[in-house]
Write a structure and sequence with these properties.
- This protein has a seven-stranded mixed β-sheet.
- The chain has two domains: 110 residues, 3-Layer(aba) Sandwich (Rossmann fold); 178 residues, Dihydrodipicolinate Reductase, domain 2, CATH 3.30.360.
- Helices cover 37% and strands 21% of the residues.
- It is α/β, with parallel strands linked by helices.
- The two termini are 38 Å apart.
- The radius of gyration is 20 Å and the shape is globular.
- Helix 8 packs across helix 12.
- The chain contains twelve helices and 13 strands.
């Protein structure tokens, strides 16, 4: 399989190595807006470099897009316009309106497409979903999700990230839909940039807490922070009438108990997301190879990207206007 990779930054080479490890990819073509970065990645991975989008997509069997968000719509359209199965890191586009437009183009083209929400492939999340779908959890009374980054991002990233809810929170918003099989009906969020003037400078948040109601009435609580001194902490708890389960509760969880006699997690704690989700990234790209071959349907569609971003938009409005927001209000 000949695969074209757009974007040779941090996540691009990781995806390229994963694709090569599947044994299905024997030709790798890399393009990046910084030619030297593409050349370095190609040399390290045994691939070749393309100087243009047309050259990169020539004879490609699949495309993997890891470029900057602003480039996603154009690269997606270039690939699907040639009938090339495409994987794209989240999000589809920077705005909800453009995401909806890209989704329509993907669906009209009928070309296999997979969006990059890797938590859907984490074994613990997969098991939690199985338990919910099978009825083993009973009625779901409530869900609790949290995502804590170990340290703030660079100012350059903050300036163009789109804000906490489009960046940090978006994975929680997708996994909430994935686990529950429901849509979000209403959201309310409070947050602060306290202690982090760089986030305040860009009218962004460093810490936030949200409550949501799903369309079947189930309540959800979520927390986010940009700085967790112990590490990368992503956990989810599901409380049902028959069982209660947790994702992320384990020896590498960056959280300690102060109950007498309770030892800290064995560690070492998860420090960066690349370590935490290594297996999930592998299974995500393995799934895409099957999608590109026509062996399975996409496990994460363009619609999933649109709906996660719609929730992010609702949270953004709630934070700005200090009020609950119904998802029905968020249109483009």
């Amino acid at each position: 399989m000949r695969v074209t990779l757009f974007g040779a930054g941090r996540i691009g080479p990781l995806h390229a190595r994963t694709l090569l490890m599947t044994g299905a990819v024997d030709q790798l073509v890399i393009m990046d807006v910084v030619p030297e970065r593409a050349a370095a990645a190609a040399q390290a991975l045994g691939g070749s470099v393309a100087a243009s989008v047309d050259e990169a997509l020539a004879a490609a069997d699949a495309a993997v897009i890891c470029a900057s968000t602003d480039d996603h719509p154009g690269l997606i359209r270039a690939a699907i316009g040639r009938g090339i199965p495409t994987f794209c890191e989240k999000p589809l586009a920077a705005s909800l309106a453009e995401s909806i437009a890209v989704r329509r183009d993907i669906e009209a083209a009928g070309v296999p497409f997979q969006l990059g929400f890797q938590r859907r492939f984490d074994p613990a999340y997969v098991e939690a979903r199985r338990l919910i779908e099978s009825g083993a959890m009973g009625d779901i009374h409530a869900l609790s999700l949290r995502s804590h980054d170990p340290e703030p991002a660079s100012e350059e990233f903050i300036a163009s990230s789109g804000g906490m809810f489009r960046d940090l929170s978006i994975h929680d918003l997708d996994i909430l839909r994935f686990l529950s099989g429901r849509e979000v009906d209403e959201v309310y969020v409070i947050g602060s940039a306290k202690g982090f003037p760089v986030y305040e400078k860009y009218d962004d948040l460093a810490n936030a807490v949200a409550v949501m109601r799903l369309d079947d009435g189930t309540p959800v609580a979520l927390t986010w922070t940009r700085h967790d001194p112990l590490g990368h902490d992503v956990r989810t708890e599901v409380f049902g009438s028959r069982d209660s389960v947790s994702v992320g509760l384990g020896p590498r969880m960056p959280l300690r108990s102060v109950e007498p006699g309770v030892p800290p997690p064995a560690g070492p704690p998860w420090h960066i997301f690349l370590d935490r989700w290594d297996d999930a990234y592998r299974d995500e790209l393995t799934a895409f190879v099957d999608v590109a071959r026509g062996a399975r349907l996409s496990p994460c569609t363009a619609r999933d990207g649109v709906e996660a971003l719609r929730i992010a938009e609702a949270l953004t409005v709630s934070a700005a206007e200090h009020r609950p927001v119904r998802l029905a209000e968020i249109t483009a």
